[in-house]
Specification:
- This protein is mainly alpha-helical.
- It has 2 domains: about 35 residues, no CATH class; about 80 residues, Hect, E3 ligase catalytic domains (Hect, E3 ligase catalytic domain fold, Alpha-Beta Complex), CATH 3.90.1750.10.
- The chain is built from 7 helices and 4 strands, in the order ααααβαβαββα.
- It has a two-stranded parallel ribbon with strand order 1-2. A two-stranded antiparallel sheet has the order 3-4.
- α1 crosses α2.
- It is extended and about 60 Å long.
Amino acid sequence: MSASDARDAISQFGSADAAAEALSHGGSNQERENCKGKVTVNEKPKNASEILLELKSQMKGPCEKLTVDKEDLVSDALYHYKSRDFDATTPLHIRIRNQVAVDNGGVLRQFYSDVFASLALSDEMKLFQGEVRRRLPLFKNEHVITGIF
């Protein structure tokens, strides 16, 4: 595909995302035009609450149950999210091994809080840099090579 074709598709479909989606279906210009009505691009959410509501609306199916060790949360989380079978639209329920708790949202929230805190403060992975309360993401080639991203 030429740069001219790409520009025409972006012009025709209104955004690079919509053009990429339509072009990925292949076919003729007429088939792409027919696809135009099927490609929807939501307006940009204005805040985190709207983003979370949009993501929640896309979740479907039965909940996947994930059992984790309190001492090994980061490894368990990475194993789950890097798995070939990972489906971002499947709701997740967390069980912590050797602890009695019902996950009505609080256990899941605590799981994510603990995982993110461990990742942010990890001296081994070094995914972030800066002061503890003002950490910024750090991109290194070794992160890509090791498969963390």
